[in-house]
Amino acid sequence: MYVISNMGKLAKSVTKNVFKELNIPFKNHKEYINAKNTVGIIKEKSMMHNGKYCMDDEIFSSVYETIFDWVLGVHLAKECSSGNLECYWNDKENCMVFRDPKIPIDKKDS
């Protein structure tokens, strides 16, 4: 169990690592997620112990995954809105599909 002694520092560190993993420049992070959102996710998933926020490895993984999914979702939406990606719902697979509009679609895959 880890006690969170500096919420802001943890939030920034997690966010930086997410951006690094997604290969998105951190300088643009405010366009994707703000510190209040990140801190809110950490607080929501953490446990309180003796009046302090605490987490274990499982909680940390959940925090990281939630922030990763948030940033990735915003990134995909930005790419679609700028025309770099197209997206559509695939009823057969029951999922959203993102594709490069420059690559012709194979009719059997649609």
Outline of this structure?
It is built from 3 helices and 5 strands, in the order βααββαββ. By secondary structure, it is α+β, with helices and mostly antiparallel strands.
Descriptive report:
By secondary structure, the chain is of the alpha+beta class. 47% of the residues lie in helices and 17% in strands. It is built from 3 helices and 5 strands. The chain has helices at residues 7-22, 35-45, 57-81; strands at 2-3, 47-49, 52-55, 86-90, 95-99. The strands form 2 sheets. A 3-stranded antiparallel sheet has the order 1-3-2. α1 packs across α2 (35-45), α1 (7-22) crosses α3 (57-81) and α2 packs antiparallel against α3. The chain is elongated and about 60 Å long. The N and C termini lie far apart (48 Å).
* Succession of helices and strands: EHHEEHEE
Number of helices: 3
Shape: elongated
Gyration radius from CA atoms, angstroms: 18 Å
User: Averaging pLDDT over every residue, what do you get?
Assistant: 93
How would you sum up the major sheet? Answer: 3 strands, antiparallel
Structural class: alpha+beta
Q: Unreliable segments (pLDDT under 50, ≥5 consecutive)?
A: none
Which percent range describes the beta-strand content?
15-25%
Straight-line N-to-C gap: 48 Å
Spatial strand arrangement across the major sheet: 1-3-2
Count the E strands.
Answer: 5
Helix content: 40-55%
